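Q: What structure does this chain adopt?
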Amino acid sequence: MGQKLKIAGWIALGAMAGALTTVQVQAVARGTLSPLPLEELQQLAAVFGMVKTDYVEPVDEKKLISDAISGMVASLDPHSQYFDKKSFKEFREGTSGRFVGVGIEISMEDGLVKVVSPIEGSPAFRAGLKPNDLITKIDDTLVKGLSINDAVKRMRGEPNTKVQLTIFRKDENRTFPVTITREEIKTQSVKSKVIEPGYAWLRVSQFQERTVEDFARKLEEIHKESPQLKGLVLDLRNDPGGLLDAAVAISAAFLPENVTVVSTNGQLEESKFVYKAAPQFYLRRGGNDPIKRLTDNTKGVFKTVPLVVLVNEGSASASEIVAGALQDHKRGVIMGSQTFGKGSVQTVRPLGPDTALKITTARYYTPLGRSIQAKGIVPEVLVDETEEGNLFAALRTREADLTAHLGNGQDKNADKPDAATTKAREEARERARLRLEEETRKNPGQRLMPEFGSDKDFQLQQALNRLKGQPVIVSKTQTERPEEKKEN
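A:
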């Protein structure tokens, strides 16, 4: 057995050495070659060999290596990730704003899938699905008991394949089947409306490949409907971020040409960069520039229109870049709650045709040089989610709450929160959790917070008050979060 183990170990080491040679060549190409820790790599190979030969049952070699890579990358920070074939496909769908499915926005109600809205022009839209329809079965599978993610996976699939949905329409008190042919769906990450004459709302829910085009088109529609615009609310609440160049483009729509939007800095020379409000910094492949078209078609009105930017604890990454740029250039008033605090840049490096590494390569900095990593953007005007206060905000996770989060890079001597601050946060979370449970029991399946953009949206109403010069109901409890030092 000992001889077999030794042979297996050396075979594994030989395989890894071949792979490491490739890594070494790539490191030379980047000009960052450093000696490899051979003793530790020999241990890794030995462990691989032992697991392969001694584990109680046979193991999949490829899965072992894949899991080892995943573990190594996951230990760096919460945003670095190894993509296997499946996760890489899902990631690309997420950033492209395209997927294959039926084309509905959904939520859960009483354990069933509720249609929030069919996407215009989608197969579900053409099949006549309506808001508030309940999906009780997907093909032969009862929806009751499925998670929302499981339901989504069952409705997605390959193009031109069919899925049968069983629909319960409450207002007609009837159940009926609908067979829908799946096709590629293009999601809308931008919504807008003129709330009242002279005042408009535009929401960006994620920064995807199509976001800039959709954003420019929506602002053109707003200008056409309300050419004498007096104020605009840019809503970035719960926007988790996305593509950096999309954030630069949207910032450029409101800022003077060529001013700094964001800068990045990391180990690699290519990660040290300043992005400015100009086409060469956000156009990927040249060609059509939606931001220039927007400026030309609206005579630059959005460069000067009074602006309020709504953010909250769910605003992260690219949305924080936009908020930080507009704040530093004093282009608008930031209102709401302190943001998530994801001030790092991830680069996706392909490892093959269907696998990749997403790795943190830089921190980003606002135009005035502020790192918001693990801190966030602090609004000039702190406003609660509702007139009753921030009911469930304490339950939201922030960057500083994530295990192994990257440090700020600027506030190295910042004190950790004292025991009293930590205790107060835990107590606030417990109160919010108990309230959520109580509200869920009293109103099963109902929306507990007002829909963004609705007439019950308290923060939006305060943003409109600000634009009109009317009194704003500011928060009596929110304060800037204390600096938090990364655990070593």
